[in-house]
Amino acid sequence: MIDRLLSGDRPNSRPLALVLIAIALALAFAPFLFPGTKSLDTAARICIFIVLVASYDLLLGYTGIVSFAHTMFFGIGAYGVALSLSALGASFTAIVVGVLGGTAVAAALALAIGLFSLRVKAIFFAMVTLAVASAFAVLVSQLSTITGGEDGLTYRIPRVLTPAYKLLDMRILDVRIDGRLLAYYLVFVSALVLFLGLLRVVNSPFGRTLKAVRDNAFRAEAIGYRVIWYRTAATVLSAAVAGLAGALLAIWIRYTGPATTLSMEIMIDILLMVVIGGMGTMYGAVIGATLFILAQTYLQSLMGAAEHATAMLPLIPDLVAPERWLMWLGVLFIVSVYFFPDGVVGRLRSRG
At 48, is the secondary structure helix, strand, or coil? Predict the structure, then answer.
């Protein structure tokens, strides 16, 4: 049963399997294991970014396409839900309309970019996607009457997904069973389904053809595969899943703005997560997103504790000051790339 859920793509490493099981269980029971608003928000973001990073790995790791427009598709999905909820009110109908509309627009735009740009060399395609993503971000910022501009959009979601809704009067393990808990499990289950769907795609004949195109496009075309068609299909599928991830973020945080969905910083974060976890391995998205989001959320707090603990020592408190957390995050990334050139998944599988 588990083998079928994983589409036959086993971890092939006991340490990797244990790490993945630990992450899955931690996310499944996060509201009860890690009580608190910050912990729940961190778990939800990990779920969302696992899907987003996995969708980008389909493009980069499995197809060999470098794109800088992935946050644009992510933002389109988020803005689709935000605009729908703002216009139609806080209802599940508005959410469905926003999800479908945002995903369709993201897929259509990806199709247009793919058809017009994938025939050029890889570096030129990367530049085209960067230009399109930058233009889209500027357009969103300028259409303030529709998108809210730099301030973004704040909106209401159905009451059943808010803390004001109580499903049960009793508490379970001292956790309130309310709408916020329901919203978390909506994000978790949706992310799990999307991840398993991507895992199925990359282990299907379509996914194996993408690997052939990545490894040697000329040979794949010589034996009869339409390389442009496969690359375009991968681009569209990747964009659609990124749009769905953006919709989940919009539902969870109840705010959508350029800084939360369209910024180049998020695009760089996605690239880092793919590299840290391991390119061309869907499991790399799970580990990369988990490690990066945890470091991004808690590293500053840990450094504050370290600064306090080393207050009597010379120089060290200045080095571990919380305001230098970005520097140490960069150091951690360099160390991870040096010791894990194939990503964490690649290293664990080689040991297995």
Answer: helix
